[in-house]
UniProtKB/TrEMBL annotation:
NCBIfam families, A to Z: egtD_ergothio (TIGR03438)
GO molecular function terms attached to this record: methyltransferase activity
Organism: Labilithrix luteola
Keyword Mitochondrion annotated: no
One of the protein's GO biological processes: methylation
Pfam families: Methyltransf_33
Name of protein: Histidine-specific methyltransferase SAM-dependent domain-containing protein
InterPro entries: EgtD (IPR035094), EgtD_Methyltrsf_superfamily (IPR051128), MeTrfase_dom (IPR019257), SAM-dependent_MTases_sf (IPR029063)
SUPFAM superfamilies for the chain: S-adenosyl-L-methionine-dependent methyltransferases (SSF53335)
């Protein structure tokens, strides 16, 4: 069956624009200007993120893909006989194909990619349906930070919420805990949450990953401004903002900003926002994690798979891999 599950309600295109506008007005109206990284991801932003994943400096995707490639069998071995795989923020679902193929038609009840970028999600779902012809893809265009819509579980499959790519790093620690708890509830009593996190490492490696030589990360960062011009009738000169990303070791996070190159005023949907020269909009945090020293960690995270040299432990309700 190739039916498409579509979430209704708050994720419809009209209200998505409205929520973008409300967030922008609130974020740029604050004394320290911020925007949520979720607004990077329209079709153009999702494609730019795919380009980032191919960059020599951006080790995250390559390393995680390596872990999944070499441990795919071991990873899915713990998932049970009948599984529905739910992926919040699925994007292009690149790594997931390996796991879906490893599960195969007998064990895989359905794949549920959930993504805020409706158009990109539709393209991903169409591609997957041709690539893996037995796969039942039930996509949901939704903002997973607000809702995780799940289709009916007709055959009582075990729900595995798969959250790779270190997307968890884009949430501040208390929000990350809340999000994982919500995923845990969505997975249900016998469900699993499988998580990929990026670890702290040499700041020079981290710095390069978010300041690539080709400037793709800068384009990705500025896409949120371009999107305001496209969708919110804004008049922003992209050249008047600079991409600025750095590793902040006290919090163990990358901070990504857009810094105004001059004193200026921009107009968004008829509202005016003033910038001092050098004033920034913080557009993203990307937290880097430590491996827990014991398995009594508060978030009950367990690291089963990691790159060589790291310890490995496990708990029954969650498994993770780290790069
Ligand atoms: C999606 N997320 C995990 C990426 C990251 O590394 O935080 C987004 C990104 N931002 C800049 N480069 C990649």
């Amino acid at each position: 069956s190739q039916e498409a599950f579509e979430s209704r309600g708050p994720s419809s295109a009209g209200s998505a624009r409205q929520r973008f506008l409300v967030d922008v007005i609130e974020g740029l109206g604050a004394p320290r200007k911020t925007l949520s990284p979720k607004w990077f991801y329209d079709r153009a932003g999702s494609l730019l993120f795919d380009a980032i994943c191919e960059l020599p400096e951006y080790y995250v995707t390559r390393t995680e893909l390596g872990i999944v490639k070499s441990h795919a069998r071991e990873i899915v071995a713990h998932w049970g006989d009948r599984v529905r795989l739910v992926e919040p923020g699925a994007g292009s679902s690149t790594k997931t194909t390996l796991l879906l193929e490893e599960l195969g038609p007998t064990r895989c009840s359905a794949y549920v990619p959930v993504d805020i970028a409706r158009e990109h999600l539709a393209a991903t779902a169409a591609r997957l349906r041709t690539e893996i012809e037995w796969l039942r893809v039930l996509s949901a265009a939704a903002d997973f930070t607000v809702e995780l819509p799940l289709p009916p579980n007709d055959d009582n499959a075990r729900t595995v919420v798969y959250f790779p790519g270190s997307t968890i790093g884009n949430f501040e620690p208390h929000d990350a805990e809340r999000l994982l708890a919500r995923f845990g509830r969505a997975a249900g009593k016998n469900g699993l949450v499988v998580l990929g996190v990026d670890l702290k490492k040499d700041p020079a490696i981290l710095h390069a990953a978010y300041n690539d030589a080709q400037g793709v990360t800068g384009q990705f960062n500025k896409n949120v401004l371009a999107r305001m011009n496209r969708e919110l009738d804004a008049n922003i000169d992209l050249g008047s903002f600079a991409h600025y990303a750095f590793y902040e070791p006290t919090h163990g996070r990358i901070e990504m900003h857009l810094v105004s190159r001059k004193r200026q005023m921009i107009t968004i949907a008829g509202r005016r926002f003033h910038f001092r020269e050098g004033e920034s909009i913080r557009t993203e945090y990307s937290y880097k994690y430590d491996l827990p020293r014991s398995n009594t960690s508060r978030a009950r995270l367990a690291f089963r798979w990691s790159t060589p040299g790291s310890t490995t432990t496990s708990t029954s309700r969650s498994s993770s891999f780290a790069c």
